[in-house]
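Quick one: structure for this chain?
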Amino acid sequence: MATKFMKKALSLLVAALLFVTAIPAASMEVSAAPSNTTIGSEYEMVAESDAYEMYLYEPTMSILLKNKGTGAILRSTLSAEEDDGLNNKTWNAYMQSGIVLSAIKGTNDTYQVDLVSCKNTISYSDITNGFSAKIYFDEYDFGFTVNVSLDGEALIVEIPESSIEENGADTYIGTISVFPFLGYTYLDSQDGYMFIPDGNGALIYLDDKDGRYSSGFSQMVYGADIGFTDSTTVNLLWDEYKTVNDTQKVMAPVFGMIHSEDQLGYLAIIEEGQERASIEAHPNGVMVNYNRCFAKFLIRRTYVQPLNNSNSGTMTKVEDDRIHHDIKVRYMLVSGDAANYSGMAVAYRNYLLDTGMVSVKDTSYNTRVDLLGNEREDFLIFKKAVPMTTTEQAAEIYDVLAQSGVTNILSVYKGWQKGGLYDIPITKYKADSSIGGTAALTDLITESAQKGVDIYLYNDGLYTNPDENNTTFNIVKKINKRRLEVDTYGYVYEMFNYLLPTRSDVVLDKFIEDYTGEGVNNLALAGITNNLYSYSYSNVFYTRFDCKNAYESTVGEISVDTSLVLENPFDYLWKHTGAFLDMPLGSSDYMYEDEEVPFFSMALKGIIPMYSDYVNFEANKTEFMLQMVEAGVYPSFYLTYEDSADLIYTNSADLYSTKYTTYQDTIAEYDKQFKELSAMTEGSFIMKHEQLGNGLNKVTYDNGVVIYVNYGSTAQEADGVTIDAMSYKVGGGNE
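Got it. Here's what it folds into:
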């Protein structure tokens, strides 16, 4: 192997050029895909582990991963014969290259750079159980090193930041796509699916899509970077009400591919560089007839800069500097009975525990009952308090629920602060007089805790309200130096700003010191838990890496001083939260998604207690309840003592049906059912999730408990158990 890697770069360049000229002209007849156990003579084995062998074709850095037990293979590129019938040299070159880049020349970022059509040199050398490829693209005067190795049952691909070179004038690396065709399939040549981290998880089947879709899944990890992007146009009803929900953000940098027939696949985890990465999953028919999923890293980007404050003109600019962080993707290879999304979820859970990204918390059951304290509406020249649930009324709600048997409650109290729900940021522990004042709130928290009700005060650490607070010096500006403004589409407050991460830290520190000084320390934190962005301040540019580091440090410090729960947190904050609030149960429902799966809740069940979005705002409450049962997620309710009609002229006008008397019986019913389920699954992990057909699903826990969930319109039977329509039944070890 050492002799092989000592080949001179010149000979490799010649081989690459010969490879390009040898590509046959595309025809309308597509050659059959090679046998999935066949390895061409041009490949040479460069590494092996107990379970896998890795083969390399040097000119295009193409690799093959062979399962030693079954002989099944995952391929990273197409061969020259598989041209898809396209008379398109650009796409053919893309599909045959182990790594693909985009280049920026001037301000044009549309140049494709690959190992087939672009002049390049590659120097190979040995590393532990793998190879290192130093790549340089002569035309563009840039390059980098790619390290590829086998680590047990995982493939590791790394690009050290220190290896990146950009030597050309006004020529830069835009994006790097790592093995964009690893595990590809042609049309419906293989049963299986791609897994994407949309919401709780979704699958795109590897069937023939008949060219129905012009695009696939392409989402930035941790959501779009609002520091670069302009606000999107929102469809409003009567110019006031949002009619379409926002798409789900990618909460963790994972994706995967499963070949069901070959019982082989992988779960990919982006370990470094995820803050500026997108996850791409494109079904056949999107440009080419191949299914593929991969990670694309944004090294440098262009953006639109207004020429003056009036925005009368714009110009396109390139980021002054590229990212300075390593790129690393771990492909966790799954095979046999584990080659499915359940196996991927189990592998992911083990990874989270092994790396310390999560630790086991108290997962005992509580019903989540959130309350809205005080809102504001316009009144003459002032704003008038709209008290919805005072401290006395909150105590009454808890007592009524206790009389119905609901004795263990996690309750997030929103709008408790002076000035109401949207007087933000909160700098002091001072309750609004309209709900009873600070002393009454402290008494409520203390006395309720003795009755099994844990009250968490809600605090959004991200937003600031310019109508209520001075925002001259402490708010975020986009990369183009324009203020980052978020429309609320509300009656009273029309726009919010983001606090600088450093300011969020200061404000939260002050609040925590004041708050815990009163002898209470339960905190529900939002805003900074699920937003990440680039920004500018005093002519200095800060990246999403900087933003993440700041927020992670802030939340980590708060978790030491408080009992902390987080709203819909990104994965790097999971270790800091005692509960996951607002776990999505579905996806964004993109047209190309074939199935929703509870991937993230499968991975976290038994580790962190998870709570759903609010039940009382769901149109089909029965189906939503079944989804919670299936996913191991606990129910949540958002209540007020007064009628929600009182909110019609506030920024909470979109809340409806919140009066507690409407839901007290429903809460008691849910509490009884979920308490029983929790007793049977307490401390257990979900090991398998199966879709049995006709809307019947089966969930198996590691203690032997099995839960059958029937979404169908008629009763169904499985394993000798009859499950009524739109119902669930428990079987197995603790039946």
